[in-house]
Amino acid sequence: MAEPIEKLSIVVSKGSLDGIYPGLIMANGARMEGIEVMMFFTFFGLDAILEKRMDNISVATVGNAAMRLPGGMKMPTWLGAIPGMSTFATYMMKREMEALDIPPVREFIEMISDAGGEIYACKAAMDMFHMTEKDLCPQVEEIIPVGTFYEKSAGAQIIFT
Questions:
Q1: pLDDT digit string (tens) for the chain, length 161 residues
Q2: How far apart are CA 41 and CA 13, in angstroms?
Q3: How many Å apart are CA 73 and CA 122, to the nearest integer?
């Protein structure tokens, strides 16, 4: 029988809806199961915790080979380049998520933090994008370098989304 997971570290590095939500869903589910959770947002995943961007996360349609049209038909990748397709796809996905009672990014971050999940921003990515602590939502505990992430993740399962 496998050992139960007691500690989980989730790295979110993509800034699209389909890049951010898997980490949020896994973190929330883990906290509901009593698993210790730490989230580390880096590169474009920072958008999920940036005060000015977290409410406007969209779906990337260009180059997304898994994108489907309503009805399930595979969307040709060139169709994603048409102006307005990303906005339309984002609207459709958010509508489906709302119907399933999946909260918006800001609310999800608040829920995870309120449940005891730890939320960190990557120092290298913050420096690279010229961001400061003032740019982050209040739930972010600290801006940490990758070495500190590894120290805090000791004994944890690490998942990259």
A1: 788 899 999 999 999 998 999 999 999 999 999 999 999 999 999 999 999 999 999 887 776 667 666 677 777 676 667 777 778 778 888 888 899 999 999 999 999 999 999 999 999 999 999 999 999 999 999 999 999 999 999 999 999 98
A2: 6
A3: 38
Alpha-carbon distance of 142 to 155, in angstroms, equals 20
Q: Say yes or no: 112 and 48 in one domain.
A: yes
Does 112 share its domain with 93? no
Segments in the chain forming alpha helices (H): 17-32, 85-99, 105-114, 123-128, 146-152
User: What residues contact residue 81 under an 8 Å CB cut-off, 6+ apart?
Assistant: 61, 62
Q: Among residues 67, 70, 71, 93, which one has the least CA distance to residue 79?
A: 67
CA 10 to chain centre: 9
Q: Do residues 161 and 124 share a domain?
A: yes
Q: For tokens 């397709």, what's the residue?
A: 85
What is the Cα–Cα distance from 59 to 93, expressed in whole angstroms? 8
Could you give the count of Cα atoms lying within 13 Å of 18 in the half-sphere of its Cβ?
A: 13
Structural domain boundaries, residue 96: 58-102
Amino acid at 65: A
Indicate the residue type of 76.
P
